[in-house]
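Page 47, continued from p. 46.
Same chain as before, 214 aa.
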Amino acid sequence: MGTWDPAIGRIADPVARELAARGRIRSFAQNSLIIRESESGDALFVILAGTVQVYVSGANGQEMVLGRYGASDYIGEMALDGHARCASVRALEPTVCSVVARRAWLSAIRANPRIAMRMLATVNRRTRNATSVVKNLALLDVYSRVARLLLSLKYVKIDDRRWSHERLTQREIGRRVGASRDMISRILKELRTGGYIAIRDKRVTILRQPPARW
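Result:
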């Protein structure tokens, strides 16, 4: 495993650390596809460095983002049952993973059954998150979904103001809320004109609480 041994040892989650130690290291370029929806898969990926995006695609090519994960997270855990992948995973930046084959994965579970319980908790949490995404798509209008997304982002202090940690394009916001880029552009313009948000270098800052409905 070589130079990545220390990185694996620093993983705080004991389950991810145990699994990563049983895998082989693989690097992925920015924007490369790590997992493809509907393809068969028999490996789990523990992220050692970088950030990935999990998403599903429609027949027309439209994408819906389900989540973002970074170092110490693992992805592809639902391949344990041997069925086809239910979502795609894209590297948002250069990413390094420990790729754990199904055989090594099952061996780890047999040696330590608590790994299975911890992984089940992770699957349950992600299922609840996916359910929330579906619920929002069904019950909220596009503006409400955008407002909820902006309020849920992580913000960091930059130049005496709190800006979103992520740099988000209009297309990326559309992927997350299930709307067209044109619709997102109109909503963001109205929020800026109304003095609710400001945007700089693809980062957002909230100047005052956006209204519940537009």
